[in-house]
């Protein structure tokens, strides 16, 4: 009986059509990075196609709240791009690439000017200057913003500009493979999540802007099915390498329930406005970790403190701590923390003016990513570029709040130009039928999988493993156990069942998400094991000190495992500006 159904399934699968399209530059990802690059290409007059696996207006970038950095000097005239660079390098625990940092800090004002040109509504002072606020470990006020929805406003502006330029954007294309021949890109393969149509896209150059890899911890500020490590797998299988995949920033305050929204961010503004952290015993536990700054301590310290309370048995029954706002005046909460108020009502029906929020550290941002050259974000695969959270080089072991959004703007422009240049000078391109056949075959094979393992269950197994073995604090025993657990999960992955139906091919997309997460998890565990030190976001309980000998980037590839890559030295003009920055009264979203 079931065999009969499978045969029918298989016939149907073989009849799914394949669409072939061509473009000069293909952009994978329609978040801030991808759209900015596509806009640059279109403005140059280059043929460009952008594809994403979720609607462009709803990309992860739209979640960003706090702001975007540039030393515009609208509030503090002593600021400079050099000081922005110095603050970024200090916050990266000296793992950021100084050239990348310089390019972003120097190009940031242009990035903001571009957004203004696209019609972005920044918050402004009465005299019309763009307002800039203090954010994290910045020496000066240099974070521009639009209310507490900066990312949404950026995304809207980029979508609007793409519409004006009539850029081709496909919102439901899942890219499964980047196609290469002889280490040179010739396009990508994928399918339509809605109707399963396979897509063979020929392109001279490919810009990978498909986000990071933080959705495979149990609690994460990424929503379902985003940041599943797609960029990492796509790049690595095409022949590129990853840099510092172990460096993942944990934000101190993510929600715990409901399960499918676990990790939703509770803005640091909640602590900034006077929120108090307590453990299950009712103790204000920050007294133990940072008695001076208490709840206003740095993000990594608060995350580590909450984690320690939970680990040592003083956590709530659900494995969290309490963030209490109920002592604040209701009007203050409604006026200054509207998103926190609204979010908690929506996800838990909890009124934060009366009851505390149960929170725990949440995986938030991938500092590591695809290895790229600082000047143009090209990879070691000819014609393949990577940008945004998919890439690496700017943030090192800790991201300076507000630097991610500006990175999208600066490198979106530069990489758009570089890809256009590459395409214009490409004298010939050889394609590989074998590469196309292989990509097509993997989809067909997956669609014909009728195994007993459920993809969602295995995704959950990876999330459990990463949380228990490679969370806020790591050690050798746990990481090795994590790798052993991953081996078993990968064995089970060979027996999955895929069940697309009339509603769509999401099941197939989840299977690829799972593949990407498994590869990215392996890279993360192996690099975390290799980084035998504590530095920034990376806490090793068995190596609690920072090791000067480990001031290197860990570069990971399928073929060669991990190699140590020295970090360029900081130019003297920047080095002399590096100093301790007081965090008093500042927030670090
Ligand atoms: C709650 C929150 C608040 C934040 N606040 C700030 C802030 O104040 N300041 C700051 O600088 N940063 C902030 N960040 C970080 C910042 O928002 C992100 O790092 C940034 O937006 C990433 O942009 P991106 O374009 O690289 O990727 P994304 O916006 O994640 O876009 C990735 C794109 O790739 C597509 N994609 C992925 N896989 C595939 C595939 N296989 N096939 C096809 N398409 C694919 C997706 O559909 C999407 O279009 C915040 C993040 C969160 C979650």
Short description, anyone?
By secondary structure, this protein is an alpha/beta fold.
Provide keyphrases for this structure.
alpha/beta, 7-stranded mixed beta sheet, 4-stranded antiparallel beta sheet, disordered N terminus, binds flavin-adenine dinucleotide, 17 helices
Cα-based radius of gyration, to the nearest Å: 23 Å
What is the beta-strand fraction?
A: 15-25%
Q: Total strand count, please?
A: 19
Cα(first) to Cα(last) distance is 55 Å
Tally of helical runs: 17
**Percent of residues in helices:** 25-40%
The shape, in one word, is globular
Bound molecules: flavin-adenine dinucleotide
Give average pLDDT, whole number: 93
Q: Give the class from helix and strand content and strand pairing.
A: alpha/beta
**Biggest sheet details:** 7 strands, mixed
